[in-house]
Amino acid sequence: MLESTNRRLALNIGPQGAQLALRSGWLRPRYRLLESLVWQTQATDEQRGAALDALLLRHAKSGSALEVLVADLWVPSVSVQPPVNGAGVGDLAAAVSLRMGAVTDSGTDWQIASAPRMDGRFVASALRSSLMDMLRHQCQRHGLHLASVQPLFVAVWNHWHATLVPGQWLAICGPSAVTLCIAPQRHLEHLRRLDFTPADTQTLLWPAEAAQREAMRLGLPAPTTLGLCGTVPLAWRGAPGVYLGPVGDATGLWGVKP
Amino acid sequence: MNHLDLDFAPRNARFWWERSGLALRAALLGGALVLAAVAWCTMAIQTERVQLQEALARAVPAAAPSVRAGATLAQKGAYAQDLAQNKAMNQALLALNRPWKLLWDAVERVSSAPGVQVAILEMRPDTATSTPESGDVQGLRLLAESKDSAHMLGFMRQLRSEPFFVSAVLTSHQVNTQDPNKPLRFEVLVQWTQAGL
Asked: Which of A113, A154, A186 sits opposite B2 (nearest CB)?
């Protein structure tokens, strides 16, 4: 009975399109795809907003909660080193702003979110304010509660983190890129996005070699194992490592179901 | 590995409620139920205690202060003082409301009747019968002196024949030996009713 309660909408949004699903259940949430959208090439935020409006009009029930997962490509992320002798949250926020300024366009408004800590590196992400405003406006228009807006890598990490051990890295496979989640100790400290070509998907050891290169670049020990999840190319599944499961099925969604 | 708390959603009360898991919600609901049960039990115990105190006070009114749980000595003393004051106040009200004019006229009629030779020395209300609990019947004590017992008995007969009084009882009599005339001093209790007024 509990599994049929706690219903909420889940929206996956990215450069290619959006998918809306219905999530239900407490202990092991289940997702049922309601509808998918594909954006037109070079679509503006207004056009995306209009398409999303029509989508929510068909499926949204007023008062429901909406969880949004944003594609990593739309969420620039950086690794931030807390300042030496930093006194508090203000110093961390200043460090995040400084670091984020290097990877974001200064002509665009960005909303920044991070999981700061004083005793080590942490990850910060930015989301275009116009996109956030569009989501807020749609929620207000359809009487929804914006329960969460997270980058896809955060949802994937939070799904798998309990199964990982220190020294093991997580690789989220997409159609043309891999996002490496690197946690030398117990916290996610680095994110690296590596593009690959179709030829790379036929190379058995490409993920392991790419991970070793990144370890050398960051001055870290190479990962003991690499956990692959998402739409993992078939050739990579035979490589040494741990296969955690697909990011998604035909929906390409949620990414967090084994 | 640690959970990553990175979210762009506005952090209001609904945000934290939505993120609270089933265990937390169940704990909150359980806590609320326990609080409600404790409050209900407290109210029930308090009500029962008040009812018991009222029942005890009804059963033994005079002992009520002593059986009241937690009553201090000062409270018990104050309660006793209140009772005495109430009683005195009721007596005073009864004395004020007594029909003195009618009583005096009735006694005057009896003492001035032919053949009656007594001197009325004192008239005072009878506290034993003149109480709120005695109901309709009220009492009056007369202290009088006569020359001898024959005159005393004549006075008594006259009192009994007076329609205003419902009864007349000789309660005591004695000879005053210190007086050279040796008069007979006696006390009579007469009673009347409010209906006879």
From this structure: A186
